Amino acid sequence: MNDGETFRDIASFELPYTRKAQVREVTFASGMKMTRLILREGKRITQVDLDADSARNLAAALIECAGSGADA
């Protein structure tokens, strides 16, 4: 965690092929809140901060994909 950031864990997922995903709400020192998506694959970590609109758009795309019967 960086100085001035606080976070609240929202969800954790065990994904196929021993990958993991976490969703957090991050509040910065300025008071700005973002949704943080953390993807882990072995030692590799990818972290993306999303504003509210981007988080909603990503959620909608995932719901659409899941509803289409697409199997990974």
Report on the structure:
There is one protein chain. This protein has 72 residues and is α+β, with helices and mostly antiparallel strands. It has one domain. Helices cover 22% and strands 49% of the residues. It has one helix at 52-67; strands spanning 6-15, 19-27, 33-41, 44-50. The chain is flat and about 40 Å long. The chain starts with 5 loop residues before the first strand and ends in a 5-residue tail after the last helix. The mean pLDDT is 92.
| Structure classification | alpha+beta
Distance between the termini: 32 Å
Q: Order of strands side by side in the largest beta sheet? A: 1-2-3-4
Broad shape = flat
How would you sum up the major sheet?
4 strands, antiparallel
Strand content: over 45%
**Count the helices. How many?**
1
Instruction: Kindly state the number of beta strands.
Output: 4
Pfam families: DUF6967
InterPro entries: DUF6967
Using brief descriptors, characterize the structure shown:
49% strand; DUF6967
Structure at a glance:
The protein contains one helix and four strands; from the N terminus they run E-E-E-E-H. The chain is of the alpha+beta class and 72 residues long.
Q: Which helices and strands appear, and what pairs or packs with what?
A:
Layout lengths: L5 E10 L3 E9 L5 E9 L2 E7 L1 H16 L5
Antiparallel strand pairs: 1-2, 2-3, 3-4
